[in-house]
Q: What sequence folds into this?
């Protein structure tokens, strides 16, 4: 049974309260580095990405530098990451698109971001919210698992349905905090196997809801 809107909001806000200082765990210094880091994080831990990006950004600090590199040169810096050959191909093409279509700048709209090679809805939402402060809600594996485990959405919900449900439940100013807190909650408490959510009864205290 999917929770009511008020109860779903209660659960998510209690998760935010558990991790009020949750911040992005990817290392970046500008919009281009954020975009690249999020692209690299697909099917890879943020910790692994953070080990690879210093060398990558030292070698290719700008879209211009990355666009003229070969795919093998890019791949050599990210070879310990999952799907690194595909990611190298996407990074090179994406860098060229930034130069050709956006004057070397990372665009701010979802439509423009999703026009870039290797950029899907989740990556676009992260760049918009973290990079530009534009309200958006990104759904990763942690967020999807938590929302299904806690009946915020039905078990068969797609990532887009999860995104729309959370955006309907929470005000826009809480979307980014919810995304960050859910990642921490998923790593520390709501594990894929043997989740420890029952140790936090406040999540299920609906007496004032």
A:
């Amino acid at each position: 049974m999917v929770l009511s809107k008020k109860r779903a909001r209660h659960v998510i806000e209690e998760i935010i309260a558990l991790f009020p200082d949750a911040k992005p765990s990817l290392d970046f210094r500008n919009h281009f580095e954020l975009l690249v880091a999020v692209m690299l994080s697909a099917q890879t831990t943020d910790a692994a990405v953070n080990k690879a990006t210093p060398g990558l950004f030292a070698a290719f600090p700008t879209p211009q530098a990355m666009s003229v590199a070969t795919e093998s040169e890019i791949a050599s810096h990210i070879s310990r990451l999952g799907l690194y050959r595909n990611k190298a191909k996407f990074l090179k093409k994406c860098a060229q698109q930034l130069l050709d279509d956006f004057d070397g700048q990372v665009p701010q709209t979802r439509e423009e971001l999703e026009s870039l090679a290797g950029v899907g809805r989740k990556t676009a939402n992260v760049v918009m919210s973290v990079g530009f402060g534009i309200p958006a809600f990104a759904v990763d594996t942690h967020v999807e698992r938590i929302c299904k485990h806690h009946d915020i959405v039905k078990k068969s919900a797609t990532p887009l349905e999860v995104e729309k449900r959370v955006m309907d439940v929470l005000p826009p100013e809480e979307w980014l905090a919810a995304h960050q807190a859910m990642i921490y909650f998923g790593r520390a408490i709501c594990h894929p196997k043997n989740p420890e959510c029952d140790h936090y009864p406040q999540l299920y205290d609906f007496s004032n809801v």
Observations:
- The domain at 29-130 is CATH 1.10.340.30 (Endonuclease III; domain 1).
- The chain has a mean pLDDT of 97.
